[in-house]
Amino acid sequence: MKFTHELTYDASPADVYAMLSDPAFREEVCRAQQVVSADVTLTPRDSGGFHLLVDQVQDTAGLPSIARKITGDTTQAVVEEDWSSRSGGTVSVTSPGKPTSATGTVVLEAVGPGAAGTREVVELDVKVKVPLVGGKLEALMAENIKKGLEVEQGVGTAWLAGAR
């Protein structure tokens, strides 16, 4: 299943990149997403990009029973971003031991008058390898990724406005 989501910010791409490459921001997003636990590791690259690894445990209480049969009461989600430059890179979301994955790209683009704003575009290929119900579970996984990105955008908007 193809998934695309856009996040917009009233800040320059340089400011948005600085936020996204700050481990404190990533930890704040995890708190706002109400994950059970999270370990955030962000390593800057000499090339101007960075590598992010967020290993988190999520509560599955709100998921339909069909999904909870696969995940259990909690599930581990490993989010990995590998930014090759200040304008984007690759993204993957996996759950070790589960038949789910989402892989793709993230790109920052200048938008608006004088290119004063930023659009962050996340494009993923979401896969759930479960016979018969895989498509439904892919849609559910994509919806959960969307909700997580919406929380991230809310935290990011406040972060960029200086309300942290």
In DSSP terms (H or I, runs of 4 or more residues), the helix count works out at 4
Q: Describe the global form.
A: globular
Structural class: alpha+beta
Report the mean per-residue pLDDT as an integer: 91
Percent range for β-strand residues: 35-45%
Distance between the termini: 35 Å
- Report the biggest beta sheet as strand number plus sense, adding barrel if it closes: 7 strands, antiparallel
Strand segment count? 7
Rounded Rg:
16 Å
The string of secondary-structure elements, in order, is EHHEEHEEEEH
Q: How are strands sequenced across the largest beta sheet?
A: 1-7-6-5-4-3-2
Tell me roughly what share of residues is in helical segments: 25-40%
User: What low-confidence regions span 5 or more consecutive residues with pLDDT below 50?
Assistant: none
Summed up, what is this model?
It comes from Nocardioides cremeus. Pfam families: DUF2505 (PF10698). This protein is of the alpha+beta class and 164 residues long.
What secondary-structure arrangement, pairings included, does this model have?
Blueprint: E1 2-9, H1 13-20, H2 23-32, E2 37-44, E3 50-59, H3 65-71, E4 74-85, E5 88-94, E6 100-111, E7 117-128, H4 134-160
Helix pairs in contact: 2-4
Protein architecture, described:
The chain is an alpha+beta fold. It has 4 helices and 7 strands, in the order βααββαββββα. The protein has a 7-stranded antiparallel beta sheet with strand order 1-7-6-5-4-3-2, covered by helices on one side. The longest helix is centred in the C-terminal third of the chain and has 27 residues, at 134-160. It starts with a strand and ends with a helix.
